[in-house]
What we know:
- This protein is of the alpha+beta class.
- 30% of the residues lie in helices and 28% in strands.
Amino acid sequence: MKKRxxxxxxxxxxxxxLASFMLVVFLSSSVGKDKxxxxxxxxxxxxxxxxxINSNEQSCLKYAADSALTLAGxxxxxxxxxxxxxxxxxKVSQNEKGVYWILRDALDNPPEYPRYPNFVGIPQIPVLKKxxxxxxxxxxAVKDELEKYSAYQFxxxxxxxxxxxxxxxxxxxxxxxxTVAFGESDTIFYLTYPIKITxxxxxxxxxxxxxxxxxxxxxxxxxxxxxxxxDDLNPNFMFTPEIVNQQRYNPLKADVAITVSPGPxxxxxxxxxxxxxxxxxxxxLVFLRQNRNPILRRIQDITVNILDNINIxxxxxxxxxxxxxxxxxxxxxxxxxxxxxxxxxxxDSHSGDFSRFLNFKAEAK
Length: 365
């Protein structure tokens, strides 16, 4: 009887030990499953967060790039410091319609005009990118403007606090930077954006390296506009649709149109790319040309006998292709404005002073 009681006790103890062991195994298994499930949930949340961040970055990069290209196109490649660019607005001539690429020379009055035979006006044209010579340029390069402004717009677009609702904390480690590359048929924006992602107790550092192909042929369009503007500083160049849309000046004439909208004070030159739209509008590059005085070329001094008849032809052209009205007045008034005083007589000791003055006046109409 005593042995049976002892055996029963051992059996009970064994059952208790076995049950305890099984309980420990069960609890361990449950805890392990919970940890695994938590890890799976954390990984899933991290993947979802990364996908959401990548999508947001790509969307903001597109917005920033399109905004930069559009603004640079409207302002002839300039983006001003108050807009988030680099150009000093106080040092660049502009108005509400755009930026001047060609300015009237303040000293362009005849007969000393043009001061340089093959140069009429003052250029205000930004370079596309910094010269390899390292020489400083008067205005910021278009490439630097696009990079600065697009990086600024990207930073404004990214809203990192929106991910907190997903249980994800995102910290920006440094400012985003964007590099612009110009191709013949595309302008590509490359983004570098270092961030730190924290989910619960785990964190991960990530540097975004995304790119956006805008499809804008900025290099080609800018080159056409720049060549035309510099050629137009030549007084003999005619900026007419028939000339500027020739293959020589506009190799993309099949889908890039060049138009001139004349005005009394300035002309608006627009290059429109019919192959690329940003939003609802075709991409265009605009620059202004300030109205310059007509060129009244100097008439050489002529000595004639008294009462002789002579013919004098005024040689007048207008660098902005405006119609010019020419008038001639006999007067001894002082030279002023666009008038040219020219002596056609000579001194005669017997008859006194027979000097006469012709004033040729040229006005753009």
